[in-house]
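Inverse folding, one chain.
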């Protein structure tokens, strides 16, 4: 059985937020982080704590059965709810990609060059089929990399959900009923953008950190996290 240790979160700006994740897709809720002593998401089996994926015995590997992407963390679960991997959006992207590749299969890797708009940069994308890790993230990303979700499941068939168990293809009505803290940012028919899963709702709204969701004709087609909800770009 492969149990992968989460990556420790060195970035204080995220660790100091009031983290409030919800359970999604039938899997356990991500572990809360303390504002006194930042803690990573913790493995369900504390005695198995390898420091690197290669340190893990490959015999009897437990397959991934669900990915939960929230404003706080990216977590991969087995079918029985065992947490296989969890991380905040901090640290080097290389180890995150390495572990996700072992759990979800090889990504399609692409890169782009900044266009000089002031809202982009040279970026590398690791696409697991609807679950994209982008390094660095777009302007407004809180942390050195971001996650974009564009499909209800990865290319290897692992379901992807967010808070309230919501997945790509959800209706706007179902999303609003399940999420509960969404903020309508703007409408350009047929598209609507929402901020949701806000980590620091007690802060002034222009300091809110959360996720961005896009609906086309009332259907969820994608979301990105973690973001300053009211970033200029």
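Residues assigned per position:
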């Amino acid at each position: 059985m492969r149990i992968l240790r989460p990556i420790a979160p060195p970035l204080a700006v995220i660790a100091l937020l009031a983290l409030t994740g919800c359970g999604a897709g039938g899997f356990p809720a991500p572990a809360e982080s303390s504002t006194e002593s930042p803690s990573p998401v913790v493995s369900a089996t504390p005695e198995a704590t390898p420091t690197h994926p290669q340190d893990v015995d490959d015999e009897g590997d437990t397959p991934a059965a669900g990915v939960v992407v929230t404003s706080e963390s990216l977590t991969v679960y087995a079918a029985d709810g065992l947490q296989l991997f969890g991380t905040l959006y901090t640290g080097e992207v290389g180890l995150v990609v390495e572990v996700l590749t072992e759990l979800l299969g090889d990504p399609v890797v692409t890169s782009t060059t900044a266009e000089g708009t002031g809202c982009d940069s040279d970026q590398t994308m690791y696409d697991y089929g609807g679950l994209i890790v982008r390094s660095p993230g777009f302007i407004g990303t809180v942390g050195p990399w971001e996650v974009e979700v564009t499909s209800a499941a990865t290319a290897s068939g692992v379901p992807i959900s967010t808070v309230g168990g919501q997945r790509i293809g959800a209706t706007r009505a179902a999303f609003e009923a399940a999420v509960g803290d969404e903020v309508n940012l703007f409408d350009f028919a047929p598209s609507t953008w929402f901020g949701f899963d806000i980590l620091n709702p007690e802060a002034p709204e222009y300091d809110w950190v959360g996720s961005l969701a896009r609906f086309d004709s009332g259907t969820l087609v994608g979301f990105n996290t973690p973001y300053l909800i009211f970033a200029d770009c």
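Helices lie at 12-15, 93-104, 172-179. Residues 1-24, 29-60 have pLDDT under 50 and may be disordered.
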